[in-house]
Amino acid sequence: SAAGMHSVVGSVGGAALGALVGGLTCGLLGVWIAQYVHPGDEDEYWAKHYKSRPYYNPMYEFERDYEPAYEFGYEMRHDYGGHSFEEVEDKIRAQWEHWRHDSRLDWPLAREAVLDAWRRYDQMNAEHQVKPQTF
């Protein structure tokens, strides 16, 4: 019937609109969160401070080895908002193998740098009263 067809079209259209609005909302929130975590600023921060971290090993370089781990930590914190590091560590560890590119840090070595960036992301967002969201 025409009424039944209208109901189906309305439901499909409503779902599509809902997905669009939800996607835009999440995207805008991501932009809003990202305004507090600037990749260039963070690269500069870690380039200045990585040698003072307890996991630092002089046989590894910032740009090749540690920088990818810090960037990965921020990305994973953003992607797994609302979860603790421990809750998603197995997933993160598996993804590190694809993300690391030329970094010589295997997971046990990269883990502390990734966690450092994860915590810094939380700290910076807490200073601006922004909490990672799960969508």
Write out key terms for the chains shown.
mainly alpha, 135 residues, single chain, globular
Summarize the structure.
This protein has 135 residues and is mainly alpha-helical.
- Cα(first) to Cα(last) distance is 36 Å
List low-pLDDT spans: 4-35
Based on Cα principal axes, name the global outline.
globular
Beta-strand segment tally: 0
**Alpha carbon gyration radius:** 20 Å
What is the quaternary state of this protein? Answer: single chain
What can you see in these coordinates?
The protein is an all-alpha fold and 135 residues long. It is 73% helix and 0% strand. α2 (39-49) packs across α3 (62-79) and α3 (62-79) packs across α4 (85-99). The radius of gyration is 20 Å and the shape is globular.
Please render the helix and strand layout as text:
Blueprint: H1 2-34, H2 39-49, H3 62-79, H4 85-99, H5 107-127
Helix pairs in contact: 2-3, 3-4, 3-5, 4-5
